């Protein structure tokens, strides 16, 4: 039983990383119609920047948690302004290929600079220990990561449902033309939304840094699972991204614990089942012909 | 001010890869009138709407609104001038509630549009106005429901309420009764009549009963060109119009 609770916590913590990143992916897809393949690389960059800040500038985890998303927001803004923007009018495939190419460049650049072995990163002071709940010992950092990601997801959810910008983002996600006909400048929100989505991937990277091997390749597997998350949740669905992120984290953790050989396969079996039963995903809307 | 044109197009033309969807159209819509655009499928009616609202840029020609040249401006620049449109295919925000639809529309022409961080809950003034508009189109009891839960006729009514929320000088309705049963059609006619009070309306519709009941003036389009224009009775009796319609019907 105590093991099961530990696996659940690990699953929810990993799921939190997926949820945060998938949320960024969903918001970007919703407003721009771009499937950002480089999302995994942005997650990797978040973790690498955190590690470099620590090694070279002695900037610790808590500062990184704030600074890295801001840096990644800037990176996202540049990426949208300099690259993505010019392909928006074309078939979405072009931006998919662009971000795929960008991923290869980012991964190779990090490999060139920092090599292929993992960069060191420690669990922040105060969260290194175990917390005993009854007879169960749980990692303090896993609890923190899990609570923190869910809190950020909730905050983003509130932003989207309770504020005007949220209303505009939701409206332009569904019917951009209709939104423009109401006199709302959808284009003005495109760059900040893209930057925001990338910042969420970066934030997930920082959160993952103390628990994962920080390598140039850490985003490659991540993006594949992230796509499974998005398919399960429903492409463009914001609630779906969060719920499916946590779900996939759990499934993965149980898989690793109880059926290590099949851990990865289980996620994609889940994806296949969801697609068979509900082709538009758990929270996706049915396409109206 | 009545009697002067609110909307004018001059030699308005739109080409798609050599195909002329709208060709040299001169349209004058008089302030305070209800103006119908009719014509067979592919006559260029929706393209014309898209040119008027900025969703398409004309190949040549000009669009004047209230004496101002608005040719080639973006939709989000045109809408605040006082042009609201509905869409042929209902394009609502399925997940948003009816009230949210109206609040979004009500907030956009005001300074609130810039205060993006403001909580929607604070927009109390909009809330009341939103409810008024919903009442006007008979949807007040569904204010908190998501748009996806509405029946087809109700969705079209919500479209009208959204257009009205912008308090437009000019209301463009693209097939407001498309796909409706007779009852809904009659209700929509009554509704549009009520909304047209003190406004200028241009609408596209295939239903001649609707056109006859609502329109002060009718412009008939065929293959992107103006075939005939005048009061409904006169246009209906026009030989060329009859040929065009029967011809199209017998194809």
SSE layout:
The complex is a heterodimer of chains A (289) and B (251).
Chain A: H1 2-32, H2 39-57, H3 61-87, H4 92-114, E1 130-133, E2 136-139, H5 140-162, H6 164-174, H7 176-181, H8 186-208, H9 218-233, H10 238-258, H11 263-277
Antiparallel strand pairs in A: 1-2
Helix pairs in contact in A: 1-5, 1-6, 1-8, 1-9, 1-10, 2-3, 2-4, 2-8, 2-9, 3-8, 5-6, 9-10, 9-11, 10-11
Chain B: E1 5-16, E2 19-30, E3 34-38, H1 45-52, E4 60-65, E5 68-69, H2 75-82, E6 83-85, H3 98-107, H4 124-136, H5 152-165, E7 170-174, H6 182-196, E8 200-204, H7 208-214, E9 217-222, E10 225-230, H8 232-236, H9 239-250
Parallel strand pairs in B: 3-8, 3-9, 6-7, 7-8
Antiparallel strand pairs in B: 1-2, 1-4, 4-5, 9-10
Brief digest:
The complex is a heterodimer of chains A (289) and B (251). In chain A, 74% of the residues lie in helices and 3% in strands.
Structural overview:
The complex is a heterodimer of chains A (289) and B (251). With 289 residues, chain A is an all-alpha fold. Chain A has one domain. In chain A, strands 1-2 form a two-stranded antiparallel sheet. In chain A, a hairpin with a 2-residue loop joins strand 1 and strand 2. Chain A is globular, with a radius of gyration of 19 Å. Chain B is α/β, with parallel strands linked by helices. In chain B, 37% of the residues lie in helices and 25% in strands. Chain B has 9 helices and 10 strands. In chain B, helix 3 crosses helix 4 and helix 4 packs across helix 5. Chain B starts with a strand and ends with a helix. The chains are: A mainly alpha (289), B alpha/beta (251). Chains A and B meet through helix 6 and helix 7 of A and helix 2 and helix 3 of B.
């Amino acid at each position: 039983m105590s093991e099961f609770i530990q696996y659940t916590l690990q699953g929810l913590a990993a799921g939190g990383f997926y949820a945060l990143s998938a949320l960024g992916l969903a918001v970007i897809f919703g407003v721009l119609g771009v499937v950002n393949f480089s999302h995994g690389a942005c997650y990797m960059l978040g973790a690498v920047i955190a590690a470099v800040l620590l090694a070279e500038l002695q900037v610790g985890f808590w500062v990184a948690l704030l600074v890295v998303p801001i840096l990644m927001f800037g990176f996202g803004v540049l990426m949208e302004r300099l690259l993505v923007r010019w392909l928006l009018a074309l078939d979405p495939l072009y931006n998919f290929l662009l971000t795929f190419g960008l991923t290869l460049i980012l991964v190779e650049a990090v490999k060139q600079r920092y090599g292929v072995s993992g960069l060191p990163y420690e669990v922040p002071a105060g969260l290194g220990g175990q917390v005993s709940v009854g007879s169960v010992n749980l990692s303090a950092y896993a609890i923190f990561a899990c609570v923190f990601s869910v809190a950020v997801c909730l905050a983003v959810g509130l932003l989207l449902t309770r504020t005007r910008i949220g209303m505009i983002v939701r409206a332009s996600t569904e019917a951009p033309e209709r939104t423009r006909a109401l006199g709302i400048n959808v284009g003005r929100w495109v760059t900040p939304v893209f930057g925001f989505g990338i910042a969420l991937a970066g934030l997930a990277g920082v959160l993952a840094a103390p628990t994962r091997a920080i390598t140039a390749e850490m985003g490659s597997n991540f993006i594949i699972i992230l796509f499974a998350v998005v398919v399960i949740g429903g492409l463009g669905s914001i609630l779906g991204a969060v719920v499916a992120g946590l779900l996939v984290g759990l499934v993965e953790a149980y898989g690793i614990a109880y059926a290590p050989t099949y851990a990865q396969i289980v996620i994609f079996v889940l994806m296949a089942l969801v697609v068979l039963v509900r082709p538009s995903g758990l929270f996706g809307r049915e396409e109206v012909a | 001010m009545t009697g002067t044109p609110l909307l004018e197009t001059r030699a308005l033309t739109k080409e798609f890869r050599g195909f002329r969807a709208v060709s040299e159209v001169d349209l004058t819509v008089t302030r305070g009138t209800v103006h119908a655009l009719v014509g067979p499928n592919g006559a260029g009616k929706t393209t014309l709407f898209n040119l008027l609202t900025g969703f398409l840029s004309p190949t040549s020609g000009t669009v004047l609104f209230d004496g101002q040249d608005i040719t080639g401006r973006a939709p989000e620049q045109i809408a605040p001038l006082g042009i609201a449109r509905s869409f042929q295919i209902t394009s609502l925000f399925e997940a948003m509630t009816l009230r949210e639809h109206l609040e979004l529309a009500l907030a956009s022409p005001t300074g609130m549009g810039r205060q993006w961080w403001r909580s929607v809950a604070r927009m109390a003034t909009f809330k009341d106005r939103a409810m008024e508009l919903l009442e006007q189109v008979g949807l007040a009891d569904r204010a908190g429901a998501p748009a996806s839960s509405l029946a087809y006729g109700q969705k079209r009514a919500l479209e009208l309420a959204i257009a009205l929320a912008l308090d437009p000088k000019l209301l463009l309705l693209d097939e407001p009764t498309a796909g409706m049963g007779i009852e809904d059609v009659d209700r929509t006619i009554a509704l549009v009549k009520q909304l047209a009070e003190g406004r200028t309306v241009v609408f596209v519709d295939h239903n001649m009963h609707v056109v006859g009941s609502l329109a002060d003036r009718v412009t008939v389009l065929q293959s992107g060109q103006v075939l005939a224009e005048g009061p409904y009775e006169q246009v209906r009796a026009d030989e060329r119009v009859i040929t065009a319609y029967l011809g199209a019907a017998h194809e």
